[in-house]
Amino acid sequence: MKMKETPSLCNQFADAPGAQAARRLFEACHRVGEDARPIAEFLVSLCTSEWTRIDAGSLCRRIIDDALFTDIIAVMTWLREGRHEGFDLPDIFGSSNAGYAVILDLMDRFEIHRMAF
């Protein structure tokens, strides 16, 4: 079942600019449709590289909205800066279940399936 809206950020990450940027990217995937596929693949790849990998060229060429591209860079920077704090992208929505439900929704919405390597 497809989610109708992106959940709010949990209190721990509500004021984190990188988490706010990630939420905007999740929202764009709901709003923009198939043109947001590179964004969806980017977000899923941050959770597991077993399902998809970042196509940097696609992100650079296909994301024409400068604000969305800036959000991608903000998320990458935030995750890099917090790499020793022990959190993962799905944690921004609170429980692991809530966060992974958002990821699974993206995978379903954009038909992202496990890649064969």
Give a structural overview.
The longest helix has 16 residues, at 17-32. The chain has 5 helices and no strands. Helix 1 packs across helix 2 (37-47), helix 1 crosses helix 4 and helix 2 packs antiparallel against helix 5 (96-109). The protein starts with 16 loop residues before the first helix and ends in an 8-residue tail after the last helix. The chain has 117 residues and is mainly α. It is 55% helix and 0% strand. The protein has one domain (19-109).
User: Treating each run of at least 4 consecutive H or I residues as one helix, how many helices?
Assistant: 5
Portion in strands: under 5%
Give the low-confidence spans: none
Q: Largest sheet, if any?
A: none
Q: Give the number of DSSP strands.
A: 0
- Helix and strand composition category: mainly alpha
Helix content: 40-55%
Distance from first to last alpha carbon: 28 Å
Mean pLDDT: 85
Radius of gyration: 13 Å
Order of helices and strands: HHHHH
Number of domains: 1
Oligomer: single chain
Shape: globular
